[in-house]
Amino acid sequence: MWNESISLITRVYNALLKAMSVDAVIWNVVAENELTMLGLEATPLTDDPRFLQATEAVVLTRVDDYPMQQLLRAVVDKHALLAHQQRVVSGEQEPSY
After folding, report:
1. pTM of the entire predicted model
2. Which site from 6, 13, 21, 39 is most exposed, i.e. has the minimal number of CB atoms within 10 Å?
3. Which residue numbers delimit the Uncharacterised protein YhfZ C-terminal domain (predicted)?
4. pLDDT tens digit sequence for 39-86
5. Contact between 92 and 85 (Cβ < 8 Å)
6. Total domains, the chain
7. What are the respective helix, strand and coil percentages of the chain, to the nearest 5?
8. How far apart are CA 29 and CA 97, in angstroms?
9. What pLDDT is attached to residue 66?
10. Is residue 95 within 8 Å of residue 88, measured between CB atoms?
């Protein structure tokens, strides 16, 4: 079905930030000491009103990748996903990846 080879390339966020390849990264901080070891610090976003406006996931595909788009439409329950995200935002549930 696919004629393209796919390579998984692991990237370290800290290196990307230092190289200025990305502006910022948002992720779940379970152990703050892990960030400290990387020379980073966690800044809670809960008091920032913009945080409440940025609580939906985005899935990007290539514009011509119709099989992937159809697969996502078929298997992702958008309402369940958004409900899960709202439970995470409200503190009712821990995020899981």
Report:
1. 0.41
2. 6
3. 13-97
4. 777 777 677 777 666 666 677 788 888 998 999 889 988 888 888 878
5. no
6. 1
7. 40, 0, 60
8. 12
9. 92
10. yes
- Write phi, then psi, for 92 (nearest 5 degrees): -75, -20
Question: And the tokens for 49?
Answer: 């009103």
- Distances, alpha carbon 11 to alpha carbons 8, 20, 24, 58, in Å: 10, 13, 14, 20
Q: 7 lies in a domain?
A: no
Query: According to DSSP H, which parts of the chain are helical?
Result: 13-18, 32-37, 49-53, 66-75, 78-89
Q: Which amino acid is at 52?
A: L
Q: Angle at Cα 34 formed by Cα 28 and Cα 39, nearest 5°?
A: 105
Radius of gyration of the chain (CA): 17
Asked if residue 96 is part of any domain, the answer here is: no
Write down the pLDDT at residue 8: 60
For residue 60, the enclosing domain spans 13-89
